[in-house]
Design brief:
By secondary structure, this protein is α/β, with parallel strands linked by helices. It has 2 domains: 288 residues, LarA, N-terminal domain (Rossmann fold, 3-Layer(aba) Sandwich), CATH 3.40.50.11440; 52 residues, Alpha-Beta Plaits. It is built from 13 helices and 16 strands. The structure holds iron/sulfur cluster (2 copies).
Length: 356
């Protein structure tokens, strides 16, 4: 049984309180043990797309880096470039976006490195024995780091129902081509009766796969690579995907990517999940979103499966309902957790240690 530490939060707690809780969890869990002198220590985070306000606030994690640096290792903040069209599709724009949100050496005392390089070509193949995949592509600067700390903002998600630690590792350690492989089964379909021909999906499609014919958006499936951007973009709910054919293999491949990313880091990785400003959609969405429930707290664990299972259990308990399934009734988020457990990535059985 894995241990998960939980530090509850009051609604809209100050950055000082949150950063104290983060360091309290780091100390209680003994996370310093994964870092060693002179080693590279990747800290995976999502910097938040332009206009996003729900992402992890850099002020919350500044004291965390002060603690990590006591081990005389070389920590750096990192993420990889995105499939979708936005501010994080190449390393230059991505770094500028990180700086605009306050993730910079001046504020945090650590550099930011986009782990898959300028055009997302800096990666290696890692062999695994998955149901779908026998090898996965992992960004080199994460692969070459000896330790990995994963900071995840918990949100709902248009294709997977939930994004937390497993998804953050799976998508977040993969180059664009690895993200594309995970999305390969996503087949968006336009419901003609709902389409208003507004053209918004066309603006956001990174593959120019959508055109309007006869007053209805049409998707060229030969060009589409399943990023899901059009589904998230359409305000009229005119684009859907089939859960069975798309979300199940997507979530299972995510778990397999997480397995590859963590393969050589046994005893050298740890996870913090932030149940703060939880939103319907993820931090890749280019807008400020309202929270869907009160802030709950922060979780810490060495086990990505246990921390995500504890996350959904706490969310259900504190919200009084399965809020993620209500937000995304067509997407059963539990697939990613169950498949990760079946691969041996961790355990869904956990002991919750509740802190002040
Ligand atoms: S965004 Fe939605 S309503 Fe607008 S063209 Fe695309 S599918 Fe139709
Ligand atoms: S059609 Fe939709 S899912 Fe396909 S590439 Fe374009 S935005 Fe992404």
């Amino acid at each position: 049984m894995s241990k998960v530490w939980f530090s509850p939060l009051e609604e809209n707690a100050s950055p000082d309180i949150i950063s104290q809780k983060v360091v309290g969890l780091y100390n209680a869990a003994g996370f310093e043990r994964i870092f060693d002198k002179d080693e590279f220590a990747a800290v995976k985070i999502h910097f938040g797309e332009k206009n996003n306000t729900g992402h992890i606030n850099p002020q919350w994690i500044k004291p965390l880096f002060d603690a990590v640096k006591e081990k005389k290792c070389k920590p750096f903040l990192t993420d990889t470039n995105t499939l979708y069209r936005g501010e994080r599709q190449n390393s230059i724009n991505h770094l500028m976006q990180a700086y605009r949100h306050g993730f910079c050496v001046e504020n945090l005392g650590v550099p930011v490195i986009i782990a898959d390089g300028l055009l997302s070509k800096n990666y290696s193949e890692v062999s695994i024995d998955g149901k779908h995949l026998k090898s996965v592509k992992i960004a080199n600067d994460i692969l070459h780091s000896q330790s990995l700390m994963v900071l995840s903002h918990v949100t709902g998600h248009v294709l997977t129902g939930m994004g937390a630690a497993i998804k953050n590792v799976a998508m977040g350690c993969a180059p664009r081509s690895g993200k594309q492989i995970q999305h390969a089964d996503v087949r968006p379909e336009v419901r003609a009766e709902k389409c208003r021909a507004c053209g918004l999906c066309i603006q956001w499609c990174p593959r120019d796969a959508i055109q309007i014919y006869d007053g209805v958006a049409r998707i060229d499936i030969g060009k589409c690579y399943g990023c899901g951007e059009c589904i998230a973009t359409c305000r009229h709910h005119a684009i859907k995907h089939s859960f069975k054919d798309t979300s199940v293999p997507l979530q299972e491949k995510m778990a397999e990517y997480a397995l590859g990313a963590l393969k050589d880091k046994k005893g050298k990785c740890c996870f913090l999940n932030f149940l703060t400003h939880i939103t319907k959609e993820c931090d890749c969405v280019d807008k400020a979103q309202d929270k869907v429930t009160k802030d709950i707290g922060i979780l810490a664990s060495y086990d990505p499966v246990a921390i995500d299972k504890a996350t959904v259990d706490l969310l259900r308990e504190k919200a009084g309902k399965d809020i993620l399934r209500r937000l995304w009734p067509e997407n059963d988020y539990s697939i990613q957790i169950k498949h990760a457990e079946s691969l041996g990535l961790g355990s869904g059985n956990y002991e919750l240690v509740i802190m002040d």
